[in-house]
Amino acid sequence: MKPWAKRRMEEERYTQHDMERGRLLFAGRVDFIMGAVSLGTLPGADRPEVAFAGRSNVGKSSLVNALTGRKTLARTSNTPGRTQELNYFEMGAEMNTPAYLVDLPGYGYAKIERKKVNAWTRLVKDYLRGRPNLRRVMLLIDSRHGLKENDREIMHMLDEAAVNYQIVLTKLDKLKVADRDKILKKTQEDAKKFIACHPIIMATSSEKGWGLEDLRAEIGQLTAF
Ligand SMILES: Nc1nc2c(ncn2[C@@H]2O[C@H](COP(=O)(O)OP(=O)(O)OP(=O)(O)O)[C@@H](O)[C@H]2O)c(=O)[nH]1
């Protein structure tokens, strides 16, 4: 996308207030609250939350770290599929409208046995159905691969649970310039087939810092009361 076109979209999509709130949310303290293995142990639903989901190795930890400008907040790894908990982070503790960021366990790692996949599905399904303060799930998709079968399964699950979700492409820097627009358009077309999927696809690179300002603003807007 041409920089001017991108700039215009940003201006139309977010108010100054959203951008400012997004910036402040991620600029202050972002504290790890807990890793929940069951719904019974989740923190109270007293503030809005946004969850991050995606296949193992999609770049979720890198993105969360890049958003907060920290290197060690969410664990990045070369051993996909290790985290099997709902990891809660509190953002904007010093603001009067704080929010939670929830890092959902990665899915689709081939070496995980069926039993664990079932446990993941159960935990995440229960979470998605029963969390009234969940404003949106950011569904991360590796821009080199596009939507895979298990991404589509999750999208159907989100559709059924009537959870608002939005696709965030990751690792855009790994694509050739000409391929970036192609994957964006293709994903946009795919997204139309899913009822609860947000029509706007966000594109990011944690490595280069691309799309982070937009994503912060989006989350700022979503978690404003
Ligand atoms: N070039 C490039 N590499 C990236 C980017 N984001 C992540 N990576 C790399 O992709 C690999 C996986 O990244 P992680 O952030 O650990 O992925 P994850 O989704 O948290 O993985 P799990 O812990 O399995 O859930 C790492 O080697 C990262 O360095 C990006 O924007 N650009």
Automatic annotation (TrEMBL):
PROSITE patterns reported in the protein's UniProt record: G_ENGB (PS51706)
GO biological processes: division septum assembly
Domain of life, source organism: Bacteria
SUPFAM superfamilies registered for this protein in UniProt: P-loop containing nucleoside triphosphate hydrolases (SSF52540)
Keywords of the record: Cell cycle, Cell division, GTP-binding, Magnesium, Metal-binding, Nucleotide-binding, Septation
Domain EngB-type G: 46-225
Purpose of the protein: Necessary for normal cell division and for the maintenance of normal septation.
Family the UniProt entry places it in: Belongs to the TRAFAC class TrmE-Era-EngA-EngB-Septin-like GTPase superfamily. EngB GTPase family.
Full protein name: Probable GTP-binding protein EngB
Organism whose genome encodes this protein: Kordiimonas lacus
